[in-house]
Design goal:
The chain is mainly alpha-helical. The chain is built from 13 helices and four strands. Strands 1-2-4-3 form a four-stranded mixed β-sheet. It is globular and about 80 Å long. It binds zinc ion. The site of zinc ion has 4 residues, from helix 9 and helix 11.
Length: 295
């Protein structure tokens, strides 16, 4: 993830510079050149500060130390974080801090959500965005945490019919019990945090089609071919050694399940389906087997 996107800085500077120039042209008609220059410079600086407000807030936020209790949660619960080098851990922690300061996370009655749950939700987003340096996580719709699974009417359903859901325009919903199952059990390949964040990523270009945003045109054709082939096999009862049956439901679910397996069981995916693994590695620009090394 990127915390300070350079293209935004350039974009904002160009717009502010343009306004500044306009102000200079207008003021210099009736006032002295130094005065016009001062006023236009002031306007440009004010506009940049206004446009960059979010990034200035991030800059000030990151002046604070990363909370030790959050670090303990990451060490205890997040395998991906544990594999990172000390430098990369700092980058991951910054992503977690920014995510938690900008996203609204609350329980079904508006109550506060436990610290460990908030941190693993942020860690899910930070994991997916870690290798994609140009990616800025969108400020999402609200993130709602149910105590357990729920049904289509959003009523508590202990049979765990739904463990999480992402609406195109609405909130992202997680079951706390299932989030814990993903992060507290060891490498089951099931992780609702990564799964729902993969849907958010997939939908960032407006379509839940299993083709994530920013996939290069060179990679798109093989991606579609591999996805269609594996889904067909899953529906025929094949290819289930590593991808669970649910991945065959549609393209969006295929992508979300493949993301879970890519980050949770990378060695098994690389061994059993190197073609899919390499496509995922190319997109996420990371090898989750050793994430601190270049893929
Ligand atoms: Zn799903």
């Amino acid at each position: 993830m990127t915390i300070f996107p350079r293209h935004k800085w350039i974009e904002h500077s160009v717009v502010a510079g343009g306004f500044g120039f306009l102000v200079f042209a207008l003021v210099s008609r009736t006032r002295s050149i130094p005065l016009a220059a001062g006023v236009s410079l002031g306007v440009a600086v004010m506009l940049i500060a206004l446009f960059q407000e979010k990034y200035i807030r991030r800059f000030l936020l990151l002046k604070h130390p990363f909370p030790e209790s959050w670090r303990r949660i990451l060490v205890d619960r997040v395998r991906f974080y544990r594999l990172l080098s000390p430098e990369d851990r700092i980058r991951f922690e910054q992503d977690v801090m920014v995510f938690l300061s900008e996203q609204r996370i609350y329980g079904i009655r508006g109550q506060a959500v436990a610290e460990d749950i908030r941190v693993v939700i942020a860690a899910s987003a930070a994991t997916l965005g870690f290798g994609i340096e140009s990616w800025e996580w969108p400020t999402m719709r609200d993130i709602l945490v149910y105590p357990t699974g729920f049904d289509e009417d959003y009523s508590i359903d202990r049979s765990h019919h739904l463990t999480g859901i992402v609406h195109q325009q609405g909130p992202v919903i997680f079951s706390e019990e299932d989030l814990k199952m993903g992060y507290y059990a060891s490498q089951t390949g099931y992780n609702v945090g990564l799964h729902e964040m993969a849907h958010v990523l997939d939908m960032a270009d407006g379509a839940a089609d299993g083709i994530p945003p920013g996939l290069s045109w060179m990679a798109t054709a093989p991606w579609i071919r591999v996805m269609a082939d594996r889904m067909q096999k899953l529906r025929k009862g094949e290819c289930r050694k590593v991808l669970r049956e649910y991945a065959g439901v549609n393209e969006a679910e295929f992508f979300a399940v493949a993301v879970e397996v890519f980050f949770e069981k990378p060695h098994i995916l690389a061994e059993s389906d190197p073609e899919l693994f390499n496509l995922m590695r190319g997109y996420f620009r990371i090898d989750p087997r050793a994430p601190s090394r270049s893929p």
